[in-house]
From TrEMBL:
Family in the record: Belongs to the cysteine synthase/cystathionine beta-synthase family.
Reactions the enzyme catalyzes: O-acetyl-L-serine + hydrogen sulfide = L-cysteine + acetate
Enzyme class: transferase
Cross-referenced Gene3D superfamilies: 3.40.50.1100
PANTHER family xrefs: CYSTATHIONINE BETA-SYNTHASE
Organism: Ottowia thiooxydans
EC number annotated for this UniProt entry: 2.5.1.47
Protein name: Cysteine synthase
Alphabetized UniProt keyword annotations: Amino-acid biosynthesis, Cysteine biosynthesis, Pyridoxal phosphate, Transferase
InterPro entries for this protein: Cys_synth (IPR005856), Cys_Synth/Cystath_Beta-Synth (IPR050214), CysM (IPR005858), P-phosphate_BS (IPR001216), TrpB-like_PALP (IPR001926), TrpB-like_PALP_sf (IPR036052)
Residues forming coiled coils: none
Length: 300
């Protein structure tokens, strides 16, 4: 008998209905707001999908082989997922990340055996990405490059999008996702638009001055090459305060313990539901809240 491996546990995550947040208004407007629980993936985030996809397909194409060194700039979740995927597939993983990200993320990456290089907070992800490219130029490893790698949105086109379509029986009218690497929103949008062009795709973006892990507004020169703006119908700005408060509310009122970007996506989903009728609004809970305990977002 062939038993499943940890790799087989990635994907097929639950889709659950919010029961209390916005309940009266949603009932009056005949709306349903649903949360896709990507924190249920084995390494704890939606990034498990593209991490395995990028390594597996690069290996299939002969671009990498077990024992090679992989290098990636990451704000956290992709790094954790790549560290897990590298452990599964037998690669050395070097992750480059800004020093101000949560200690839980760094500890989790190290638990999977990854090596960390911390970069100055002031340089942000842009500096980390530049350093990764420099290291590749020095022959220190291979960059999978989540920002330009077509295997990132491809896996969401192949798995996340079809799961949402099946789980809502094709009733989904609005899809809300935080925009960071943009792999999730691009891949899911491509699938849903093929199924029903009228499905609205909404990206959550940070308001001016807000620092929300997992949600980024990139300078034009750093805009991920995988991003297809023609697939996104609307971008909604969310403040750091609103994202953090909604993350706390999801835990307290719904029992959904998600991260800060998940709170941001949930806040945007509520804004959409407040203006629509007969809508099925889906947002992505992209990771778990225990990844942010040291930040003070959740009360001690």
């Amino acid at each position: 008998m062939n038993y499943p491996t940890i790799e087989d546990a990635v994907g097929k995550t639950p889709l659950v209905q919010l029961q209390r947040i916005g309940a009266q208004d949603n009932l009056a407007r005949e709306n349903v707001v649903l949360a896709k629980l990507e924190g249920n993936n084995p390494a704890g985030s939606v990034k498990d999908r593209p991490a395995l996809s990028m390594i597996r397909r690069a290996q299939e194409r002969g671009e990498i082989k077990p024992g090679d060194t992989l290098i990636e700039a990451t704000s956290g979740n992709t790094g954790i997922a790549l560290a897990m995927a590298a452990a599964i597939k037998g690669y050395r993983m070097v992750l480059i990340m800004p020093e101000d990200l949560s200690i839980e993320r760094a500890q989790t990456m190290k638990a999977f055996g990854a090596e960390l290089i911390l970069t100055p907070r002031s340089g942000g992800m842009e500096y980390a990405r530049d350093l990764a490219d420099k290291m590749v130029g020095q022959g220190k490893g291979v960059v999978l490059d989540q920002f330009a790698n077509a295997d990132n949105p491809r896996i969401h086109y192949e798995t996340t999008g079809p799961e949402l379509w099946e789980q809502t029986a094709g009733r989904i009218t609005h899809f809300v996702s935080a925009m960071g690497t943009t792999g999730t929103i691009t891949g899911v949008a491509r699938f849903l638009k093929e199924k029903n062009p009228s499905v609205q795709i909404i990206g959550a973006q940070p308001a001016e001055g807000s620092r929300i892990p997992g949600i980024r507004k990139w300078p034009q020169e750093y805009l991920p090459r995988i991003y297809d703006a023609t697939l996104v119908d609307e971008e909604v700005l969310v403040t750091q305060d609103d994202a953090e408060e909604m993350a706390r509310r999801l835990a307290r009122e719904e029992g959904i313990f998600g991260g800060i970007s998940s709170g941001g996506a949930a806040w945007v989903a509520q804004q959409i539901a407040a203006r629509e009728k007969n809508a099925t609004v889906v947002f992505v809970v992209c990771d778990r809240g225990d990844r942010y305990l040291s930040t003070g977002v959740f009360p001690a």
